[in-house]
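Please decode residue identities from the backbone states below.
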């Protein structure tokens, strides 16, 4: 009688010790298949890209201005729709890491480097184009362009050339005296800011 009873006790103890192992396997499987945890982070470009060296330079120049609260936009502040970013911006960013917020050129025809940058203030509600003339010199000057500049604008260099467009409803053709700044709203509208010899003007190039 004692022998069968002892066998039953041993079997019972053995089963009890193996249970935690089964539970551990079950928990491990649950962890490996659980999709409710933190998801993969979005690329930096689509959530808030880090400032490039040129963006840092522009921000430093802007911060030197008394009472300035402006800084170069980043991707989060641009509020791009994913389709716009992936189709229009990402391909150009591979060649130009500052696209679509900064453009370099000689925008007033004096043979010196100028920088144009899309900027916003601390409220993230006001936007403008800062054109920094003679950017590499202490004699630099900042010209602000506010007309039709919004959060989803994109800018690029337009090398010195002839440009056809509209001024109001009238067709117009201009011969730029310097490089221009192309301002685009993807699949919506575009215009060029150019130097006419004494001031910056604009010509509409797309509706």
């Amino acid at each position: 009688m004692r022998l069968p009873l002892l066998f039953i006790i041993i079997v019972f103890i053995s089963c009890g010790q193996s249970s935690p192992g089964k539970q551990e396997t079950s928990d491990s499987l649950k962890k490996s298949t659980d999709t409710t945890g933190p998801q993969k982070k979005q690329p930096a470009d689509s959530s808030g890209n880090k400032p490039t060296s040129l963006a840092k330079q522009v921000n430093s120049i802007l911060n030197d201005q008394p009472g300035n609260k402006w800084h170069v936009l980043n991707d989060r502040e641009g509020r791009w729709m994913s389709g716009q970013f992936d189709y229009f911006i990402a391909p150009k960013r591979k060649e130009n890491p500052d696209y679509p917020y900064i453009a370099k050129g000689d925008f007033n025809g004096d043979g010196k480097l100028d920088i144009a940058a899309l900027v916003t203030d601390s409220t993230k509600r006001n936007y403008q184009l800062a054109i920094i003339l003679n950017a590499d010199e202490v004699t630099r000057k900042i010209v602000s362009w506010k007309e039709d500049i919004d959060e989803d604008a994109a800018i690029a260099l337009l090398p010195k050339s002839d440009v056809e467009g509209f001024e109001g409803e009238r067709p117009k053709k201009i011969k730029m005296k310097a490089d221009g700044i192309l301002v685009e709203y993807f699949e919506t509208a575009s215009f060029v800011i150019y130097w006419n010899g004494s001031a910056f003007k604009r010509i509409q190039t797309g509706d």
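Observation: The chain has a mean pLDDT of 82.
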